[in-house]
Amino acid sequence: MQLAQMAGWKTVRSEPLKFEPGLAFPEGVVVRPYSSDATAGPNPRNRSEEENRNEVSSNRAADELVAFLNSYNWEASKALGWKQNIPPNTIKVTVGLKPLPYFQPPEIKRVKDQVRQIEQQLRQQEEKH
Questions:
Q1: Residue 98 CB contacts under 8 Å (≥ 6 apart), including other chains
Q2: Measured between alpha carbons, how far is 80 from 53 in angstroms, rounded to an integer?
Q3: Extents of the domains making up the chain
Q4: With helix as H, strand as E and coil as C, how does 13-60 read?
Q5: Of the residues 2, 33, 49, 88, which has the maximum number of CB atoms within 10 A of its CB?
Q6: What is the DSSP pairing of strand 91-95 with strand 29-33?
Q7: What is the DSSP letter of 7?
Q8: pLDDT digits 0-9 by tens, 59-113
Q9: Residue 28: CB atoms within 10 Å
């Protein structure tokens, strides 16, 4: 928390995750960006320019945080953005259990490595443009 505050981020504490039988308890870090509710629900509407800017800004922050954590070998991923009481220009960070990669089948490890490589290539392409 102190590091985030030193970086100029506003931080808010939340309740600890509660385990509910039958539901998967999250592993690693999950970063969820703000998402406008404009296109959700029974009455979708066009997003305003401000809503678009807020989503882009939140997604960029989420991507950067995930890339930073992954670069230090943290298991981190970005969840799809959807309206979940996340204010504009905000990301929600959920820290779950430390993943146990030793018990993962080799196929899962390979797929995760491939996904990381693709994400890195996409980031490099974005930086060029």
A1: 27, 28, 75
A2: 17
A3: 24-98, 100-129
A4: CCCCCCCCCCCCCCECEEEEECCCCCCCCCCCCCCCHHHHHHHHHHHH
A5: 33
A6: antiparallel
A7: T
A8: 888 899 998 998 888 888 888 756 567 788 788 888 877 777 667 778 877 887 8
A9: 16
